Automatic annotation (TrEMBL):
Residues 22-126 form the YqgF/RNase H-like domain. It comes from the Eukaryota. Keywords: Cytoplasm, Hydrolase, Nuclease, Ribosome biogenesis. GO terms for biological process: rRNA 5'-end processing. This is YqgF/RNase H-like domain-containing protein. One of its GO terms (molecular function) is hydrolase activity. Gene3D superfamilies: YqgF/RNase H-like domain.
């Protein structure tokens, strides 16, 4: 895995010599779960995908899951939610950094680029939307993680597409 700046991730996907650029996988990394979202083939809309159970002992299994997702959805990059800013919690920063480093060490995603995107308030905004549904706490938590990944990925796609679409044509 290789870190790239946010706009480069989309730029690299658009520069590939294929008819359809790769899609993006959004990640909301937590202590217990990793929420996943996938972009549509045009990289305009984020859709909820799944939630992976996260344990210290299952990073190899998770790396295999990510390998399978990269193949199945033609993923060209990961957009990882990151708690930027002064309001961030040091524990959250450590959680995300540790997860990415462990995933990199497996060396199963060597050709996959990733970038970080601001996740502040993504989980909170989703929790506020889900609260009126009165879901079971476990169901609410997994849905919250999955849809937080959607928020993270959609915000990235909106920003990146806005930037790419305003650049002058060559």
């Amino acid at each position: 895995m290789k870190y790239v700046k946010p706009l480069r991730l989309l730029g690299d996907a658009l520069k590939t010599k294929v008819s359809v650029p790769g899609r993006f996988l959004g990640l909301d990394v937590g202590d217990k779960y990793v929420g996943l979202a996938i972009s549509d083939p045009s990289n305009m809309i984020a859709n909820p995908l799944s939630v992976l159970l996260r344990k210290k002992t299952n990073i190899d299994l998770m790396a295999t899951d990510f390998q399978n997702l990269v193949k199945a959805f033609s993923v060209s990059g990961l957009v990882v939610g990151y708690p930027f800013g002064k309001l961030n919690n040091v524990e959250d920063v450590v959680t995300v950094n540790r997860f990415i480093e462990e995933l990199r060490k497996t060396e199963r995603l060597k050709d996959v680029e990733y970038t970080y995107w601001d996740e502040r308030l993504s989980s909170k905004s989703v929790e506020m939307m889900l609260k009126p549904l009165n879901l079971h706490p476990v169901q609410e938590k997994t849905m919250s993680d999955k849809f937080a990944a959607v928020v993270i990925l959609q915000e990235y796609l909106d920003y990146a597409n806005r930037y790419v679409n305003t650049e002058p044509a060559e």
